[in-house]
Design goal:
By secondary structure, this protein is α/β, with parallel strands linked by helices. It is built from 12 helices and 19 strands. It binds cytidine-5'-triphosphate and magnesium ion.
Length: about 375
């Protein structure tokens, strides 16, 4: 089995987007673009190259992913690639796939085609798509001439190479200014082969490309599931609800901290990925979970969603009780749930209702919660 490393260059400033952050850290369908791009290479060894001063942004974007610490790139893309290749040299792979952080829509099909082409003996594999629009070139005098699109192709990434050969090409041609690695490979006389790229593998370049990329992601697998939980009141002076400790005339009975809100959301998330329920992951017979803080359960469920490549679009929870009043705590609950799930508070909804004195919640015997989660896989 050849050893393969993926080099994702994310050291640019993203100036053409005109946005506040370098584009690779801007959110795309709920996640930083860099995270989405790295996740597209799930199962591979991925080395990320970032710009100076981007360490914190990168740490946030990559939190929880199994990747080594990013290395620092340079002033040009070419320089960033060269520095990334050098970082790989201590434990050099057989093949390297060099990819733009700005192409989050790369499919496993194109990745597999690039690798297969290298395995078949090419020095380099280049995904390309045929030009389909009519092309015209503007001359210095302002006149336009038609350019035949026959035999014209647009180059994409990941561009795959025999590691030793592209590393040598980068070292030997460091001064030459080229726009991609293939141009360098050609200068170095490498045997390069084309593979079929994909139209949807766009390079997010301008602000409006974010909306286009989101709509292309939109065709993903959207899952919705619900969760429900009840805990009974007991003697006490506080309860845990949606991650907050709230003073109350009673406590809540439970093996853990009995946070019905977080338990319902945890079950809803597990439901979205068909991963059973909270009792299966954290059995009430297990002493480890006695008195446990329920954010750990929710964090675990969110981790399972992420491990599937999923993104949490939205969670909504309804607390059903006569007392305590939820309204005064709603903002803090939203913020807490958002923090545990690592999503924006605008993707969290906390609601409450009484049952008009009816049933067990009406008799103030306990609290119920029901939740709905929406996940994009
Ligand atoms: N890149 C890099 N190091 C640089 C410049 C670019 O690693 N010095 C990376 C970018 O982060 C991006 C990829 O190369 O993932 C393609 O470059 P481009 O789309 O041009 O991104 P930016 O240079 O960031 O954008 P802009 O040119 O608009 O500033
Ligand atoms: Mg650039």
């Amino acid at each position: 089995m050849p050893r393969i490393a993926v080099l994702i260059v994310a050291a640019g400033k993203g100036e053409r987007t005109g946005l506040g952050l370098p584009k690779q850290y801007e959110r795309l369908a709920g996640q930083p673009m860099l995270r989405r791009t790295v996740e597209a290479f799930r199962g591979h060894y991925v080395q990320v190259v970032i710009g100076g001063g981007q360490q914190e942004l990168a740490a946030c974007a990559l939190a929880g992913l199994d990747v080594p610490t990013p290395v620092l790139g340079g002033a040009t893309r070419q320089e960033s690639v060269r520095l990334g290749l050098e970082a790989l040299s201590t434990d050099a792979p057989d093949y390297v796939l060099i990819h733009d952080a700005a192409r989050p829509l790369i499919s496993s099909k194109v990745i597999a085609a690039v690798i297969a082409t290298l395995e078949a003996g090419a020095d380099g594999a280049l995904p390309m798509v045929a030009a389909s629009d009519t092309l015209r070139r503007k001359a210095d005098d302002g006149c336009w001439t038609l350019v035949s699109r026959e035999n014209l192709y647009r180059a994409q990434t990941p561009q795959g190479f025999v590691y030793a050969k592209i590393a040598a090409a980068h070292r030997n041609h460091a001064g030459q200014d080229v726009t991609d690695d293939m141009a360098l490979a050609e200068l170095a006389g490498l045997k390069v082969q084309m593979v079929e790229g994909e139209e949807k593998n766009i390079k997010v370049t301008r602000k409006e490309d974010f909306a286009l990329a989101e709509s292309l992601f939109g065709s993903g697998d959207i899952r919705t599931a619900s969760g429900y939980d009840v805990h009974k009141f007991k003697d006490g002076d506080h309860i845990w609800l949606c991650g907050l400790e709230i003073a109350h005339s009673h406590g809540l009975e439970g093996h853990s901290d009995a946070d019905v809100g977080l338990h319902a959301i945890t079950d809803a998330l597990l439901g979205c990925i068909g991963e059973g329920d909270i009792g299966q992951h954290f059995p009430p017979t297990d002493e480890r979970w006695r008195g446990a803080a329920s954010w750990k359960f929710l964090d675990h469920a969110a981790g399972l969603v992420r491990a599937r490549g999923g993104v949490i679009n939205h969670v909504d929870v309804t607390i059903i009780c006569e007392r305590p009043k939820v309204g005064p705590h709603r903002g803090a609950m939203k913020a807490k749930i958002a923090e545990i799930l690592n999503i924006e508070p605008s993707r969290v909804s906390v609601k409450a209702t009484t049952t008009e004195g009816l049933g067990f919640t009406g008799r103030r015997e306990g609290i119920a919660a029901q939740a709905t989660a929406t996940v994009r896989l």
